[in-house]
Amino acid sequence: MSIALDKKQKIKESLKKTKEKRKNQIPKVYQLKISYSNLNNQQKQWLERVFLEAKWLYNYTVADIENRLNSKTEKLKQVEIKTPQGIETRELTCLSSQMKQGILDRIKKNLFDLSKAKQKGIKVGKLKFKSDYRNIPLKQNGITFKVLKDKNRIKIQGLKKPVRVLGLHQLPDNCDIAKAELIKKPDGYYIYLTCYIDKQNEKQKQEKINKPIGIDFGIKHQLTLSNGIKINYRIEETKRLKKLQNKLSRQQKGSKNYQKTKQKIQRQHQKIYNRRKDIKNKILSLLRRYEYVLIQEEQIKNWHSGLFGKQIQNTGIGGQIYDLSDQKGAVISMLKKNIETLISVNRYEATTKICSRCENRKEKIKLSDRTYKCEKCGLVIDRDLNSAINILKIGLQKVEETTIKNLPTDCGDVCSANWRHEVEQVKPVERDICKAKWRLKEEQAAARVLGSNPYVRVSYTSVKQEAPNFS
Ligand SMILES: [Zn+2]
């Protein structure tokens, strides 16, 4: 009796300790791909089977929740499932009891969420049967799974040999591994690892650039930053995808080969999606370092419609793939969702026509003019860079107005924020751009963040000066 109590006390204490520790940590999920070519046959079969069994157990439980959602089900070695031939039994040989418990816990959680929604007056249905189960919880580090970092492998309960995974190098040395999930996707198997990382560490890693940035969205260069950095990215439908789609159209619907081709197409979609997502994340990661991100709203919408629609589809930054109707404003909403300090400039501001140095306004600038030449002050500058700087300047005025309005009278530190002083210094624009130290730091950051993706190209442009043209 006293031993049991003692144990309880110990668990309580360790839970308290963990809770205290978590206060200074943030959770992060790492996506690790299981290297399929390194799997042996037994492992391949096991992976296929374990997802099947998870589906059986899930459907078995959902079929009679009242009698089956309990710890007895966690111990079952076989379940009955409904097939076109009638009720049949299926052995559960791969699912461990911890995995079973995880699946049932999830059902409980779903039921709880449903009842909560119902209380709020939202119309809810019942839990549905699944035709595919793609996500198996691996609850406990050390039991359902174990990370062997130096070997680039993860041991999964039920599999004798650990599986080789890609991406373990991302894990910081001193992080707490909490839980994992085994995931099935069209392009392969993954393990999602949830870790807790020290907040301090994370902050240091993401060095901030204490300065605002303007962005021009264009066709030739997708992103031109007001510091002269240009980011190009291009993800196209692969040739293989087109070929497969052609093949599919010639095959008989529902046939075995049709299904096979369909799977291959899914895999291609997943690949393209992954590339896009990576580009998107990397661009966001770069932009988040800046104090403010300034854009011009309407610019992007134009960019989406009509002539340029097809190109947008391939730019990776929008939300849904292959759905053009959903693309309008996708970039903006993506940026809005992910960057807290995003500020958009009124779409009627003539950011392309105005000289970013002397503010002289041109009547017309053709889309084919890649360089902006100012007749008044002699500035010769890349067209997109000129716009990006204008967006930065106009946007900063807006920041200035709104922050001053929102600030309490005693604003203390806020008023001495660095960028505020830079606002005034920005005016002679070339001085800002030529600040070599800043420039170098920003270029390095851009190269570091974006450089590892082969579908992104980072280049730089700077301002040339010409004598004023008084003719
Ligand atoms: Zn000028």
Overview features:
single chain; 471 residues; alpha+beta; 2 domains; 7-stranded antiparallel sheet; 6-stranded mixed sheet; 15 helices; 18 strands; 43% helix; globular; disordered C terminus; binds zinc ion
Report a brief summary of the structure.
The chain is built from 15 helices and 18 strands.
Walk me through the topology:
Elements: H1 2-22, E1 25-34, H2 41-63, H3 65-68, H4 71-74, E2 78-83, E3 86-91, H5 97-119, E4 135-138, E5 145-148, E6 153-156, E7 163-166, E8 176-185, E9 188-198, H6 199-205, E10 213-217, E11 223-225, E12 229-233, H7 239-250, H8 256-287, E13 293-296, H9 297-304, H10 309-313, H11 330-338, E14 342-345, E15 371-373, E16 379-382, H12 383-406, H13 418-426, H14 429-434, H15 436-450, E17 456-460, E18 464-465
This protein binds zinc ion.
Zinc ion is lined by residues 355, 357-358, 360, 374, 376-377, 379.
Tell me what you see in this structure:
The chain is of the alpha+beta class. Helix content is 43%, strand content 20%. The protein has 15 helices and 18 strands. It has helices at residues 2-22, 41-63, 65-68, 71-74, 97-119, 199-205, 239-250, 256-287, 297-304, 309-313, 330-338, 383-406, 418-426, 429-434, 436-450; strands spanning 25-34, 78-83, 86-91, 135-138, 145-148, 153-156, 163-166, 176-185, 188-198, 213-217, 223-225, 229-233, 293-296, 342-345, 371-373, 379-382, 456-460, 464-465. A hairpin with a 4-residue loop joins strand 5 and strand 6. The structure holds zinc ion (ZN).
